[in-house]
Design goal:
This protein is mainly alpha-helical and 263 residues long. It contains 12 helices and no strands.
């Protein structure tokens, strides 16, 4: 059951997800809240596909040119596959939160096309953290680095479902945030994250310790995104598309940071 009690096929939700969360060309058959709820629940599937592409690119470059360039390639590939959508949202949310202004003014700052100092600093630190963490993982082995890329991409899309829980309102009318806010039941978000963690544990079994590290890191990364969600809901009184993008990047970075700490 989707928003409003209307049944929507999972295929329609997946097309919605790929059409809005990636550059991959798909035909979106439905553009409504019911399909949006399915899309956000199924978003980890998008993470598997995009993460797999980025992991392959990063692994290939690592094999030929070393882990640092492989890490940059993986991060850059993920940005290209999303048109930098999540990074843009992260910068906008940083500017909105950093402004210290009332909700309405902060939301107006987030809609502006330019990036302020808080956004620039946040982007710089997050991208550096992602590249540094992946360089360390690729330094262990090409397989471990590739799995880290995949885990971060999947965790980023798991966070989207939690941001669209039925208890979370939209901060303003219009836009993707209003389309998907409040459309995902808690059981859907939990099931998506659990299935993603189990799938990563199975994939990580080829690297031994990664079978435990990967699901733990995904949970940690998703938890970091949850902390940001709570802050944004209190500050903006709901979510926007920018908040969802910021949650995705926070989850990805938190996952990579956790993997680095776990060794």
């Amino acid at each position: 059951m989707a928003d409003g009690g209307e049944r929507v096929a999972w295929g329609q939700g997946l097309r919605f997800a790929f059409g809005t969360l990636s550059v991959l060309r798909v035909r979106v058959e439905r553009w409504d809240r019911a399909a949006g709820g399915r899309a956000m629940t199924a978003a980890p599937v998008v993470g598997v596909v995009l993460g797999g592409i980025a992991a392959g690119a990063g692994a290939l470059v690592t094999w030929r040119a070393g882990g640092l360039l492989g890490a940059v390639t993986a991060v850059g590939t993920l940005a290209a596959l999303t048109r930098g959508l999540h990074l843009d949202g992260l910068a906008d949310v940083a500017d909105g939160l950093g402004s210290g202004k009332p909700a309405e003014d902060a939301l107006r700052i987030m809609k502006q096309s330019d990036i302020g100092p808080f956004g620039v600093l946040t982007l710089l630190l997050v991208l550096l953290a992602q590249v540094a963490a992946l360089d360390g993982q690729f330094g262990h082995s090409v397989l471990r680095g590739a799995l880290a890329v995949l885990a971060s991409a999947v965790a980023a899309r798991c966070a989207l479902a939690w941001g669209c829980l039925r208890s979370v309102p939209a901060a303003r009318p219009g836009g993707l945030g209003a389309m998907v806010a409040g459309t995902v039941p808690p059981v859907g978000a939990a099931a998506g994250t659990a299935l993603a963690a189990l799938a990563l544990a199975a994939g990580g079994s080829f690297d031994g310790w990664s079978a435990l590290r990967l699901p733990l890191a995904v949970v940690a990364g998703t938890g970091c995104a949850g902390l940001l969600l709570g802050r944004c809901v209190r500050r903006f009184r709901g979510i926007t598309g920018d908040v969802l993008g910021a949650m995705a990047e926070t989850a990805a970075t938190g996952t990579l940071f956790a993997l680095a700490l776990l060794g």
